[in-house]
């Protein structure tokens, strides 16, 4: 089936095939020394990162990543790549800073939570400085074009998009309330009477815009999560965070509106919840401590989420009823969100068929939205209906299999596929340890009936072994020459040379599962077993030379 051309140009003799490409930081920043290495590390922080797993969705190879880094370094050096190390760290930092600042802002602007120290304001000012700095970081960061799936680093396009979509909300949520209080009152910022005015109350009301940033920044929770279990776990964590800070904002909103009502009418309704809190804070002979007030505020937030009530008195004030109803409605939204997440969780882990049906439906939606041909959708449906695909879904969603230690999963794989490798004449006398390592390198692939597995005049990617199904071999003249069944193999010549050219088609007759041994991974591994590699080279060279001479 394969045809040989220049067998002498093999892997160990062809230097270009094993020489790695040079990164732009190595080629453009020449020299050695502490300063040069520091400069390389500094520039590497803002370039596209090799380690970010999101790059797999946009760049097909490490070579494409190197080209993108080269383009960014030479043409957009002052821009930050959205998949850079710095951006990944900054997203982690900003989500923690923003959440902590929301808590500090509520504490430092509250008339009820009285403190005798200025330290919380210094911390809050530092957090607000980072949030303002985040505006400039976002302006200098590229973005992902969802339509073309390209990373846009152009400064003008990036600014236009940021100004037209997010600037207003980001600026409104970055209003430095604690800085304004500190500039106006200085070291007396913790004075409760200083904060009981319309200006501070309006700023507290504007802080509700920051809920959008809470929703936006907490998307970091699901970044780079591999397993479905981790994804759902962090989804629940995100729901908890968003619900807590939403209820904290409702408590903040209710206190602010009640304070404005008192300032405008110059009167305190004794039946109101806020009036009760003021009485406990200032007029009670046994006033509670600051720590107890903070604990009580925390319980207020939890109570509004769980019990849908903020009323400690027998007679309910009408504003308290409105706020309780608001908390009740919003809390139910979060409960529905949790129920949907639970439903998705159980569907993914318990009901494989339902999961397949949902995947088919999602594929249909994708075909319609992307305006793909109908035959693409039909092939997707056919794939999910095949028994091989169902076995794959069961394997990766089965809790028993996934809970097994890695060493047991390795043993299962060895038991399934070791026989295939040992039946191949080239490997039958190799050491068992080497055969086991080769088995671990095998990759499973599923092909539907009438799929083309191999084409003529194209180099092979490695050794191909039939695990299940039946394949047919056709010549370039469309003549059927052979059939391949379980255990048959082809493409072994590509393991040792890049000059292999196929002269036949290999087409699946039934739905089939094949095992592939990638030639790149095989060659890298065989660097530690050069004697075996050259023995394999000699055997294959002799075999195919005899075939060519016979023909």
UniProtKB/TrEMBL annotation:
It comes from Bombyx mori. The keyword Transmembrane helix applies. Keywords: Membrane, Transmembrane, Transmembrane helix. This is Cyclic nucleotide-binding domain-containing protein. GO terms for molecular function: voltage-gated potassium channel activity. SMART domains: cNMP. Pfam families: cNMP_binding (PF00027). The chain crosses the membrane at residues 111-133, 167-186, 198-215, 235-264, 317-337. Residues 426-543 form the Cyclic nucleotide-binding domain. SUPFAM superfamilies: cAMP-binding domain-like (SSF51206). GO terms for cellular component: plasma membrane. GO terms for biological process: regulation of membrane potential.
């Amino acid at each position: 089936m394969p045809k040989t051309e220049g067998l002498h140009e093999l892997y160990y003799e062809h230097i270009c095939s094993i020489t790695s490409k040079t990164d732009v930081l190595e080629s453009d920043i020449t020299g050695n020394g502490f300063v040069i290495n520091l400069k390389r590390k500094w520039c590497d922080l803002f370039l596209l990162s090799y380690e970010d797993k999101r790059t797999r969705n946009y760049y097909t190879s490490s070579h494409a990543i190197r080209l993108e880094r080269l383009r960014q370094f030479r043409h957009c050096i002052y821009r930050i790549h959205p998949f850079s190390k710095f951006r990944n760290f900054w997203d982690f930092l900003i989500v923690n800073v923003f959440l902590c600042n929301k808590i500090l802002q509520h504490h430092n602007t509250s008339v009820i939570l009285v403190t005798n120290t200025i330290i919380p304001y210094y911390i809050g000012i530092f957090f607000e400085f980072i949030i303002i700095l985040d505006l400039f970081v976002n302006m200098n960061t590229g973005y992902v074009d969802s339509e073309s799936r390209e990373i846009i680093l152009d400064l003008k396009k990036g600014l236009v998009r940021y100004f037209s979509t997010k600037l207003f909300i980001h600026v409104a949520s970055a209003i430095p309330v604690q800085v304004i209080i500190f500039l106006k009152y200085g070291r007396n910022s913790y004075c409760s009477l200083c904060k009981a005015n319309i200006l501070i109350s309006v700023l507290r009301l504007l802080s509700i815009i920051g809920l959008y940033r809470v929703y936006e920044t907490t998307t970091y929770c699901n970044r780079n999560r591999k397993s479905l279990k981790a994804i759902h776990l962090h989804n629940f964590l995100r729901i908890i965070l968003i619900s807590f800070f939403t209820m904290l904002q409702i408590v903040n909103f209710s206190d602010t509106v009640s304070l404005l009502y008192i300032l405008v009418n110059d009167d305190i309704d004794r039946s109101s919840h806020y009036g009760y809190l003021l009485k406990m804070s200032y007029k009670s002979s046994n006033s509670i401590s600051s720590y107890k007030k903070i604990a009580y505020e925390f319980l207020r937030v939890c109570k509004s989420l769980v019990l849908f009530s903020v009323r400690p008195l027998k007679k309910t004030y009408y504003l308290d009823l409105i706020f309780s109803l608001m908390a009740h409605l919003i809390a139910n939204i979060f409960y529905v969100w949790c129920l949907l997440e639970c439903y998705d969780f159980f569907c993914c882990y318990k009901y494989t068929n339902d999961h397949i049906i949902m995947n088919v439906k999602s594929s249909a939606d994708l075909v319609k939205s992307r305006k793909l041909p109908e035959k693409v959708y039909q092939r997707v449906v056919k794939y999910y209906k095949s028994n091989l695909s169902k076995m794959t879904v069961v394997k990766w969603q089965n809790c028993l299999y996934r809970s097994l230690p890695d060493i047991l999963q390795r043993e299962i794989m060895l038991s399934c596929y070791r026989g295939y490798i040992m039946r191949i004449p080239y490997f039958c006398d190799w050491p068992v340890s080497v055969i086991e390592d080769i088995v671990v390198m095998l990759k499973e692939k599923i092909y539907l009936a009438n799929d083309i597995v191999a084409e003529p005049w194209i180099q092979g990617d490695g050794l191909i072994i039939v695990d299940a199904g039946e394949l047919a071999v056709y010549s370039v003249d469309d003549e059927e020459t052979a059939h391949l069944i379980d255990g048959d193999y082809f493409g072994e010549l590509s393991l040792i040379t890049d000059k292999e050219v196929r002269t036949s088609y290999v087409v699946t007759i039934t739905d089939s599962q094949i095992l592939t041994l990638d030639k790149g991974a095989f060659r890298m591994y065989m660097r530690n077993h050069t004697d075996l590699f050259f023995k394999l080279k000699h055997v294959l060279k002799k075999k195919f030379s005899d075939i060519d001479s016979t023909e």
